[in-house]
Amino acid sequence: MENTVAQTYVMPRIGEKAPEFTAVTTQGTINFPADYKGSWVILFSHPADFTPVCTSEFMTFATMEKQFNEANTKLVGLSVDGLYSHIAWLRTIKEKIEYKGMKDVEVTFPLIEDITMEVASKYGMIQPGESNTKAVRAVFVIDPKGIIRTIIYYPLSMGRNFAELYRVILALQTADEFNVATPADWMPGDDVIVPTAGSCGVAKQRMESKDEMHCYDWFFCTKKLDKETVLKKVLKK
What we know:
This protein is an alpha+beta fold. It folds into two domains: 139 residues, Glutaredoxin, CATH 3.40.30; 56 residues, Antioxidant, Horf6, Chain A, domain2 (Antioxidant, Horf6, Chain A, domain 2, 2-Layer Sandwich). Helix content is 30%, strand content 21%. The chain is built from six helices and ten strands. The strands form three sheets. The protein has a five-stranded mixed β-sheet with strand order 5-4-3-6-7, covered by helices on one side. A three-stranded antiparallel β-sheet has the order 8-10-9, with no helix packed on it.
């Protein structure tokens, strides 16, 4: 009799290529991340269908899907439940659940069937400290080149902050488009941080500069980047 060894995976990290997989979803089979080349993606997991926190999250994601799409961002959900459970749960959400003014909510983005937990394992979504059989509320933000740019984990008991997830998308794209960094609590229209000076001479020039750059010290300089400029570059209208 052959000995079988369970496959183990190293949890992916920021800056690495997103692990590849093919999966059945509520919107058909997907090849990830190949099918999403050229788009940003939020790949997120939830613990189980027919649970209240997850229901509130899916209604919020579905309601905000257009907003994310305008920022060239696709949504892909996952849980370790089966496809028919997914379909029944999403139908229940649309037909029966009204929450915070959201009603008749139809989830049109794909929800992955992951009964074998293969995808959840590849992405480190199963956290033994929380559960050996349910995926925690993981969020992976993946850029158009298939590179992981942000990873956020929430415990089973806490729903996600969706305004923050949207802010993450805008901040990442702003950093890429304008070669800047975004400070604490940044929102479009706030000042952005310019790259640190690479030499004393450059630092001195910055400190003496009369342009719109403001230096608090040689290592901490900001400049204005108006909201309209940011959104015009990031959002598809």
